[in-house]
Please model this.
Amino acid sequence: MKLCIIVPVYNEGGNISKILQLLNNVNFGIPYEIIVVNDGSTDNTLSELLKTSKRMKNVKVISYRQNKGKGYAIRIGLKNSNSDLFVIQDADFEYFPKEIPKLIKHIINDESKVVYGSRFKGDAEKISFTNLLGNKVLTFMTNLMFMSNLSDMETCYKAVHRSVLKKLNLKSNGFEIEGEITAKILKNGYRIKEVPIKYIARTKEAGKKIKIFDGVKTLAVLIKIRLGFL
Model:
């Protein structure tokens, strides 16, 4: 089994080399590759990526000029890998790469096909009231519409086996990709296992990009999938 870590990145020139180094320092227990998708960054992200990737044999860089959104970047990453197991890693320091082995071991051991890292079952720090409320509402609506019992449907840390991803036909371009992945997994009858993770939120001033309207778009995606329109 081989792991693919997809890193969608937009204007993270100050962080990208550090996060890649952290990923490379983790013992995942299986072969792995890192696919970084530069989503039209306008800062020094691409130059830092190219410099760093030369020192790391297992890092592949995909780059394009126009910013198209996190969902688009993730879908491009998925199309460019033949690995068996996938995890998404944001390019900031809200999530900790050393947590990934806790997720993937359940798939490697054939205990589950999908494992989420739950911030709210673990140690979540510095989350703003607005983001916390948005997460709780979206998770509640997901559980209501798809008869699940999740604590954190919006988590970035989603470990998913390729056999599941092949059935999802993902279409979202923005942050609503998180809701689409979760809703389609549940609609296809898969159980999502949750494990606790550590999380430290960053502020808008520090570069956090998600906005309230992204939550509205995610809710719309959930409804469309529930009604069979997406």
The chain has eight helices and seven strands.
